[in-house]
Amino acid sequence: MDVIALGDPTDAQIEQWQAVVAAVWAHDRPGEPAPDLEQTRSRLLEPPTTSRNLMWAALDEGRMCAVACLRLPHDPDRSGEIDIQVLPGYRRRGIGTRLLATAADGLRAAGCKSVIVQAVAGTPAVPFLEARGFRCVLSLRAMLLRMDDIDPDRLAALVAAGPSGYRLTRWTGAVSDELAMELAMAKRAMADLSLAGPGGGSFRWDAVRVREMAEAVAARGDLLYTVAALYGPTSAPRIAGFTEVVVPSAAPERALQYDTAVVPEHRGRRLGIWLKAAMLQWLRTERPEVREIETDNADDNSHMLAVNEELGFRHQRDYLDYQADTADLPALPR
Ligand SMILES: CC(C)(COP(=O)(O)OP(=O)(O)OC[C@H]1O[C@@H](n2cnc3c(N)ncnc32)[C@H](O)[C@@H]1OP(=O)(O)O)[C@@H](O)C(=O)NCCC(=O)NCCS
Asked: Which positions fall inside the N-acetyltransferase domain (predicted)?
């Protein structure tokens, strides 16, 4: 078994990588659409501007049987991210551990002190990560809303029932200059959900980061939709809450819920459900090809889970975010 680094992967290597990903998803996430070739290509070759990717593949007689991608942040105080995928027929032979040790070498060389990995609850990734120095830091519930299940009259009633003193606004792509800092402040309202410790905890939204996030979505060819609740004078509007959905260009049938937040002093007034209902109404008319919306919420975020259930989202599966200190990861034999 050889492990090779893929500095600048060729088309043929990306196709083999994709074959591994498709087989692993079919085995570990049955019923969930796997990323397609274009999504895999852009994930590997177009990381966000704040990071770079290091990639490795394990080969058996020249064919890829496992792959690993390490997303290394330029800022070593932020956490790296690792994704390892081993073909079902090659598991429990130490290949996952070897790729993890290889990625750990990359983290150490870059001075990056911690790393995060996402696992699907109930899959082999959980015992693997727990046996290899990771601890669970966040548990996420994935929910799915089928657009056909929405009752349009109920949706219209929810949108009409907006709390007084607020008005809705919406935009696609990056936020206007006028609202950029307000949006960043509202995103800081989500700080209670961020991961503790290096990486997650040090992240702070500002107007530049808000725009960078929208640009990263646009660079993939996807479209970001935002609905916000405003208050205060029209000459200097303030944001009380917002919700974001991304419609992927490669697979617009399944849109992805991004952030939703209500600023603490505006909570408890049904702004969350108002914003999300307005978003659904917008997408139904603007993007009828969207058939489903997927969302992930921390499983202790009872308010957001209740809002989603009221809108018709149904529980799909649970994801677990694991974190490890680089120092605790396995090392390659010297
Ligand atoms: C998680 C995954 C990468 C593990 O790869 P692997 O090559 O089977 O892992 P290893 O052989 O190095 O296993 C190392 C240890 O992890 C634990 N482990 C791995 N799979 C396990 C399982 N199915 N049940 C219990 N323990 C398991 C064991 O302690 C194992 O040591 P042992 O075989 O000596 O008992 C692989 O199952 C996979 O590709 N899963 C789908 C992709 C995924 O979820 N990736 C995200 C996590 S990075």
From this structure: 4-148
